[in-house]
Amino acid sequence: MDEGPLQVVTVATAPYPDQRPGPGGLRRRVAVFQGRRHYLHTYLQSVFSSMDLRDRQGCTLVVGGDGRFFNRPAMEVLVQMAAANGVGRLIVGCHGIMSTPAVSCAVRKYKAMGGIVLTASSHPGGPHGDFGVKFNSANGGTVTGEQEAGLARGQEVVTNKIFQISRTLEEFTICPGLRVDLGTLGRQEFDLENKFKPFTGKGNWVEKKYTCLPRRAAILSRRTNIFDFAALKELLSGQHRIRIRVDAMSG
Question: 35-48 burial by CB neighbour count: b if 16+ within 10 A, else e?
Answer without folding.
Answer: eeebbbbbbbbbbb
